[in-house]
Write a structure and sequence with these properties.
CATH class: Alpha Beta
Strand content: 25-35%
Number of strands: 15
CATH architecture: 4-Layer Sandwich
Radius of gyration: 17 Å
Shape: globular
Strand order of the largest sheet: 6-7-8-12-11-14-15
CATH topology: Purple Acid Phosphatase, chain A, domain 2
Number of helices: 5
Number of domains: 1
Distance between the termini: 39 Å
Order of helices and strands: HEEHEHEHEEEEEEEEEHEE
Largest sheet: 7 strands, mixed
Length: 216
């Protein structure tokens, strides 16, 4: 239940003309080896179970579905296992910088589409590592920088994931509970169309509003 609550807090649900969307960012499946872990965490299995309990009409993954830049046998195996659990759902992947050759691994999944961006009901969905597409939108949702902030409790400082809102852009934290995240002041520099932003509003995963922070 604790893991399910974590996924709940790190994802969002939106109502659209196509029904309820479940949106999350940066799962980085097959991350263990690159992060120096010697054991299999198997978090992607728990993530698939969470998705099924939410029963969305469709799913948007905001890029970096996988960790390795290419496709090795281990990554392919985990991707096939994960998306086999989601065959009953339409899945949109907005391609991230880690998603090279992902279509090769997922070519047998007719329910999965890999796109550079997705647009519905004036909502724009992108990964965030490239320039914005030439479309008009009211709100945009992205990932890429794994936003986090450092909170101090007396003499103890702890980095925690957060949602970062800059005007009509909402940046989601990574849904992977084992990946910490980047400080927002550094991470914002990695988004071409937001790198010159001066401030943004920070929310903890449970919805608590932390306040407006300056990036300069």
């Amino acid at each position: 239940m604790e893991v399910e609550k974590t996924f709940e807090n790190l994802s969002i649900e939106l109502k659209t003309s196509k029904g309820k969307i479940l949106v999350f960012a940066d799962p980085h499946i097959a991350f263990e080896l690159s992060r120096g872990l010697r054991i299999r965490i198997k978090f992607e299995r728990k993530l698939a179970e969470f998705v099924k309990t939410k029963k969305p009409d469709f799913i948007i993954i905001l890029g970096d579905v996988k960790e390795p830049l290419g496709i090795d046998a281990f990554t392919r195996k985990l991707l096939l296992e994960f998306f086999s659990e989601l065959r009953d759902f339409e899945v949109i992947i907005t391609r991230g910088n880690h998603d090279g050759k992902i279509e090769e691994a997922l070519r047998d999944f007719e329910n999965v589409k890999v796109v550079h961006y997705y647009f519905i009901d004036n909502f724009l969905f992108v990964h965030g590592h490239q320039n914005l597409p030439d479309v008009k939108f009211e709100k945009a949702f992205l990932g890429h920088i794994h936003p986090a902030i450092t909170i101090k409790f007396g003499s103890i400082a702890k980095r925690v994931k957060c949602f970062l809102r800059i005007e009509n852009f909402l940046i989601l934290p990574t849904i992977n509970p084992y990946i910490e995240g980047f400080d927002v002041k550094e991470g914002i520099k990695m988004i071409p169309f937001l790198k010159n932003s001066k401030e943004g509003d920070v929310y903890l995963p449970d919805g608590t509003y932390i306040g407006r922070i300056n990036f300069i």
